[in-house]
Write a structure and sequence with these properties.
Layout lengths: L3 E3 L3 E3 L2 E2 L3 E5 L9 H11 L3 E5 L2 H4 L14 H10 L3 E5 L30 H18 L10 E8 L8 H13 L6 E6 L2 H7 L7 E6 L3 H14 L7 E6 L15 H14 L1 E8 L10 E2 L6 E2 L18 H13 L18 E3 L2 E4 H8 L3 E3 L14 E9 L5 E9 L1 E6 L2 E7 L3 E6 L6 E9 L4 E3 L11 E8 L2 E2 L3 E6 L3 H5 L13 E9 L5 E4 L5 E6 L2 E7 L6 E4 L7 E9 L7 E5 L7
Helix pairs in contact: 4-5, 8-9
Pfam family, one: Glyco_hydro_35
EC number: 3.2.1.23
InterPro entries: B-gal_1-like, BetaGal1-like_ABD1, BetaGal_gal-bd, Galactose-bd-like_sf, GH, Gly_Hdrlase_35_cat, Glyco_hydro_35_CS, Glycoside_Hdrlase_35
Length: 591
Amino acid sequence: MTTFEIKEDFMLNGQPFKIISGAIHYFRLPTSQWEDSLYNLKALGANTVETYLPWNIHEPAEGVFDFAGMKDVEAFVSLAQRLGLWVILRPSVYICAEWEFGGLPAWLLKESGIRLRSTDERFMSRVANYYQELLPRLAPLQVTQGGPVLMMQIENEYGSYGMDKEYLKATKALMEAGGIEVPLFTSDGAWEEALDAGTLIDEDVFVTGNFGSRSKENAAVLQQYFADHGKKWPLMCMEYWDGWFNRWGEPVIKRDPADLAMEVKEMLKLGSVNLYMFHGGSNFGFYNGCSAREEKDLPQVTSYDYDALLTEAGEPTEKYYLVQQAIKEVCPDVWQAEPRTKTLKNLGRYPINKSVSFFQTKEQMITPVASAYPQTMEQLDANYGYLLYDMELKNYQRENKLKIVEVSDRVQVFVDGQLQEVATTALGSEMMLQPGDQATMEVAVLVENQGRVNYGYKFNNPSQAKGIRGGVMQDIHFHQGYRHYPLTLDPEQIDKIDFTAGKNPQQPSFYATDFTLEEVADTFIDCSAYGKGVVLVNGFNLGRYWSKGPIHSLYCPKDFLKVGANQIVIFETEGVELTAVTFSETPICDE
C-alpha cells in the first residue's frame, strides 16, 4: 500500500517527495477535455493535480445532490490516477476560485440572519448534511485506500476572513468522522496576521501559503511561522498564481512568461508548488464570481483563461514551455513530453431567423408569483440569472419620483415598455417617471444577478441576496402588488419561448438561429456586435457577454454542438438588434 506522510519533507512510500502540481477545475471543463488537460499537466513535468470542489454545484438545492457529467469529481480523480498523477483535493465549503459566492450555495441565504463560515448551528448543520453525501465519495479515493489523493483542505484562506478556530476544528472533526484520514491542510496568505487567524497549526494541520511572486520572501515567512510553532515542515505554495482573473470593463491582465518561469524555478528550489491555474477553463452559465467593493461590487467575466499555462480552450502557451524548462532545470529526473494540441475552427456565420420580446413571451415561459411586497431570487428558489418585477402604478399626470430600495445587482426600469433607467447599486436607484396619457403606468424592473462575491467581507452582507430586498417607492410611499418572473434560462424555459408572440428589439429580447453543421470543433462565438446578455447553445448556457469588454467572445467547446441540426438562443438586454451568429477560431479581446 502506498503511504504519504508529512515530516520534514513530504514522504511518499518513505522517500522524500517534491510535489509539482497544477490546478485544473473539473467543473470548468467539459468532460472530454479532462484527459488532454491532465496529460498536458503530466507532460509539463508535474506529478500531481489539484482541484477545488464547489458546494453550490453539488447541492444546487438543499438536499438535492448532483455529481453527474462535468460535476463527476470521482471520475476526474480516477482519470488522473490512470494517467499517473497524484491528487490534492480541496473540498472546503468555501473555495473562492472567482466562483459564484465562493462555492457557497445561494439557498443558504433563505435562512434569515445565518452567519456563514462560522459555528452558527444553522450553517454547520448544512455543512454536515453536505459532507454526509460528499465524503463517502471521496474517502475511497484516498491514498490510504488505494486511490491517488494525498491531502485534503479544511478551509480556504480563512485568515483573510475570520479567526474562528472552533469553526475550523468543527470542520476538521466532520471530515475525520466522514472517513478522511490523509493529511489535512489550510492555505492562507503568507503574512503573520493571516496565518495566525486561518490555520490550525497547533492541531497539527499542515499549513500552506498562497502567493505568486517573491518566492524567497514568502517562503521565509512560512518557514518562520513553522519555527515559531515548533514545526519542521516542508514548504509548499498551494496557489502559485501564474496569471490573474479579469473583470468587466478592465484591461486583460497578463503576466510575463519569463518572469513566471524564473519565480517558479526559485520556488521549486525551496519546496513544493501548485500552479494556479494550470488550465483555467470557463465560468459557464451564471457561475462567475464577483470582487467585493464598498459601494459597487465588480463582477468577473465568463472566461477563466487566467493567462494560465494552457489557454481557456486548452492550448499550450509560451508560459507552458518556459515553466516546463524551469522544472527540468531544478528536477532533471522528471518525465516530460510534448503537450497535446488542438485545432480550433471558425464554423461560419448564420443569420438570426427569429426574435421575440421577453415582455411578450414571459407568460408562456414563466408562471408568475404574485405578492404584496417584492421577493428576492432566493425566496423564489430561483438563485441565478434574472428576475422581472411587474407592477401597475397610478399615473398622477405629472412627473413622479420612483425609488428602488436595496436592490442587487443591475437594474433596468421600463415604463409602459420603454426603457427609462439603468442602474447598478446595492443601495437603490432613484428616477423621475414621465407621465403618459393612461390612467396607470406599467412598470417593469428587470434585475440581473451579476454574481455573488467570492472573496472578502461581504459574505454576510444583505447585498448578496439578489433582487429587490427593500421595495419600490412611488413618491414617498412603498408600492404594494408585484408579479415576479424568475428568468433562470434553464432548458425548460428556453423550450417555452414563443417566437411568434411579438418582436420589439428595444426591449430585452430572445434571438435564435437554427443551422446545420457537417462537423463540430472547438470554437468561439463572436459577441463584439452584441450589447449584454447570455448565449445558449443547444440549451447549454455558455455564459455572459458584455460590450464593455475586455473579452468580446464566448468559448464554445465542441461538446455543446452537434453534427446536423443546431440551435443558438441569445438573451439580449440592451436594445441591440442582433442579426447573426458568427464563429471565430480565436478569442476576441480588447488590446
